[in-house]
UniProtKB/TrEMBL annotation:
UniProt-recorded Gene Ontology molecular function terms: DNA binding
Descriptive protein name: LuxR family two component transcriptional regulator
SUPFAM superfamilies given in the database record: C-terminal effector domain of the bipartite response regulators, CheY-like
Keyword tags: DNA-binding, Phosphoprotein, Transcription, Transcription regulation
Highest classification ranks of the organism: Bacteria, Pseudomonadati, Bacteroidota, Flavobacteriia, Flavobacteriales
Signal peptide: none
GO BP: any one term: regulation of DNA-templated transcription
Organism: Xanthomarina spongicola
Length: 208
């Protein structure tokens, strides 16, 4: 059985389209909701592996549901689907531990890739969104990185693990972890589980 999922969107056509698509692809869609309160009730009742939520919904937004779920330590991984290309919303989503962020205009093209990544514990953020938010100039901190550290970041942006990076660069796992620690320090990042992954994906075009 594929990943268990609940979905929520207050727009009936989008909800039906997403529901039909996921069922056609043999996903285990447990239930659907038309507002945030119903969506949170479904998460509490079913504890699905993944919840695909619209950001803007009546009663509770997707972000508010994510916040409540995080406070209650629910293990459901949340994917947001939205038309919003807003940096503040994106940053808030990251801070709440959102696993996926997909733009609605690309939802049916990207949702399978997103679910696949999230099921493997890898966050997925729409490349279209990242490209839109990307600053024209490279962050000044990049200048402090060595060529080896840049290479490590390139591999991280491609979802490579420390073990895989070590094999590709012919260095030990421990050396990779040391590079990651140095990069976090130079970029002034809080060393959370996905801090380098988010930074690397957001700045991928500058990692030449």
């Amino acid at each position: 059985m594929k990943t268990s999922i609940i979905i929520a969107d207050d727009h009936p056509l989008i909800l039906k389209g997403l529901n039909d698509f996921l069922i056609e692809k043999k996903y285990n869609v447990l239930a659907s909701a038309v507002n945030g309160k119903e969506a949170f009730d479904l998460i509490e009742r079913h504890r699905p592996e993944i919840a695909i939520l619209d950001i803007q919904m009546p009663f509770l937004t997707g972000l508010e549901i994510a916040k409540k779920s995080k406070e209650l330590n629910y293990e459901t991984k949340i994917i947001l689907i939205t038309f919003e290309k807003d940096e503040a919303i994106y940053n808030q989503a990251k801070s709440l531990g959102i696993y996926g962020y997909v733009l609605k205009e690309f939802a049916l093209e990207e949702i399978e890739h997103c679910i696949d990544a999230v099921s493997k514990d890898i966050p997925y953020f729409s490349q279209e969104l990242l490209s839109y938010l990307e600053a024209e100039e490279a962050p000044i901190e990049i200048e402090s990185l060595t060529p080896t550290e840049i290479d490590v970041l390139k591999h991280i942006s491609e979802n490579k693990t420390a073990k895989e990076i070590g094999e590709l660069m012919f260095i030990s796992f421990r050396t990779v972890e040391k590079h990651k620690s140095n990069i976090n320090r130079k970029l002034n990042l809080t060393p959370t589980k996905y801090s380098l992954l988010f930074w690397a994906k957001e700045n991928k075009s500058h990692l030449k």
